[in-house]
Amino acid sequence: MTVRGKQGRRPTLEEVAAKAGVGRGTVSRVINGSPRVSDSTRATVEAAVNELGYVPNRAARALAGNRTDAIALVVPEPETRFFAEPYFSDIVRGVGAALADTEMQLLLTLAGNDRERRRLAQYLTAHRVDGVLLVSVHADDPLPDLLEQLGMPCVISGRRHAAEPLASVDSDNFEGGRSAVNHLISRGRRSIATITGRLDVYGAQRRLDGYREAVAAAGMAPDERLIAPADFTEEGGARAMRELLARCPEVDAVFIASDVMAAGARQVLREAGRRVPDDIAMIGFDDSAVARHMDPPLTSVRQPTEEMGRTMTRVLLQEIAGRSDDRPRIVLPTELVVRDSS
């Protein structure tokens, strides 16, 4: 129960300090989580806070520290892709879990067209958030450079390129692609195709690099006809699969850079009378619910998407608090989950 201060109003910071027998600054440091307070003093102040029912004025704290107590999760993709791909909801779940014990608010922003990007740029320029999580960044995206110019703390999920200067958290896309193709080779497949994601996304390029590496290491002649670029959508996966069947009817396996694209490719194979895995083995990427619910269930490369969201958030909070001088580039491992499709 909250104990009201004088004349029924809420207790003040000064009253908490008097109750605890410390200075106002000490109370402020305890409330703001400063390490420069002894354990015994912290316990005394926290007991006074609890007894008086003191509630910090978050707005005043934010103003005094030039803080908003909010971060933005920015997805530079259209709404249709955001809601179609389980990847994004898993990232949001991980971010939410990492923020659960903080006072930070999360602002989710989709910026899939020029108008939305302009509005976002204006919002960020006004410093209405303390930091930004950027997900699904394309190579030519100007947002990371804008954030750098603004001095805004930022963490990217997936780098734009190998020399990305900003802090980043990614899965091992290269090893994921390589392990998928090695599995197909171990099953005796010899005409192995791949359907890529958009190649201006660094992660999609690395999955393709892993495919190429595995094919070359097996002594198989590279065949560019077996590589079909797509766009991470179900429609794109279907379109690319039709192209592959037309160009290379002898194809006996396909590594697909997302489960959503694999669902589109699977429908095309069914319409063409190609049995999975008897005629064509399939492997996807993400290990989402889509993979588990396909017929047959889809072998897929699992990336720790929720953990990526949690890790990104932890790194960003450290940057905001000024506890990190470096910009880490964290790569989390992937795992091949074998099911009936291969």
UniProtKB/TrEMBL annotation:
PROSITE patterns: HTH_LACI_1, HTH_LACI_2. Gene3D superfamilies: 3.40.50.2300, lambda repressor-like DNA-binding domains (1.10.260.40). One of its GO terms (molecular function) is transcription cis-regulatory region binding. Keywords: DNA-binding, Transcription, Transcription regulation. It comes from the Bacteria. This is LacI family DNA-binding transcriptional regulator. Coiled coil: none annotated. Residues 11-65 form the HTH lacI-type domain.
